[in-house]
Design brief:
The complex is a heterodimer of chains A (about 180) and B (about 20).
Chain A: E1 13-24, H1 33-39, E2 41-48, H2 49-56, E3 69-75, E4 91-98, H3 102-114, E5 124-131, E6 135-142, H4 148-162, E7 170-174, H5 175-181
Antiparallel strand pairs in A: 1-2, 1-3, 3-5, 4-6, 4-7, 5-6
Chain B: H1 8-14
The chains are: A alpha+beta (about 180), B mainly alpha (about 20).
Chain lengths: ~180, ~20
């Protein structure tokens, strides 16, 4: 286990410590658990609002990233993989965005998660922005796919904080189904 | 237990904090 992240005097602590991960898949290459794991890089960990902005300001925006890149912000100790014990019974809300919306929506998503706006206790595991050729995808992972009250609350909060057009399609997928069909989206 | 909740506007203000580097 990694050492605890220190919150310095004057900083505003977050409810949880988070890890910032980056991954990029070679286009056209079949995604497997093994190469996904190998491509996953831990960039930073943060436990306060100030530490988050310090890293985020130096991070590229989704709009600047090449296709097939993913940024993951997960609670410390949870690896952004379906197989992680926190994720294995979980699932995710998937929001597909047309190009041009991702940077704003992603920032709103992160701020809602760090600020504990979802009000679902420990259910949220993390969030991912996936930059693809024709669209960008935000997904929010939670622990218990079968808990429809929680997943409903997450959907409603997501709709509110992302401020999406009412026509935006949102889809829930269990990680178990993703494992079975070997595809994330 | 108690949760540490922050509003979006507050978090956005903190972006320019001298401690945020």
């Amino acid at each position: 286990p990694l050492p605890q992240v220190e919150v310095k005097p004057g900083e505003h602590p977050l409810q949880y410590t988070y890890s910032l991960w980056f991954s990029r898949r070679a286009p056209g290459k079949q995604a497997t658990t093994q190469n996904y794991d190998q491509n996953l890089q831990l960039l930073a960990r943060f436990a306060s609002v100030e530490q988050f902005w310090g890293y985020y300001s130096r991070c590229l925006r989704p709009v600047d990233l090449p296709s097939h890149s993913d940024i993951h912000i997960f609670k410390d100790g949870i690896k952004p993989m379906w197989e992680d014990s926190a994720n294995k019974n979980g699932g995710k809300w998937i929001v597909r965005l047309r190009k041009g919306l991702a940077s704003r929506c992603w920032e709103n998503m992160i701020l809602a998660m760090l600020g504990e706006q979802f009000m679902v206790g420990d259910e949220i595991c993390g969030a991912v922005i996936s930059v693809r050729f024709q669209e960008d995808i935000i997904s929010v992972w939670n622990r218990t796919a079968q808990d429809s009250i929680t997943t409903g609350k997450i959907r409603d909060t997501l709709k509110r904080v992302l401020n999406l057009p009412p026509t935006t399609v949102m889809e829930y997928k269990t990680h178990n189904d993703s494992l079975k069909d070997h595809s994330s989206f | 237990g108690t949760r540490i909740i922050y509003e979006r506007t507050f978090l956005l203000q903190m972006r320019n904090s001298p401690l945020a580097k």
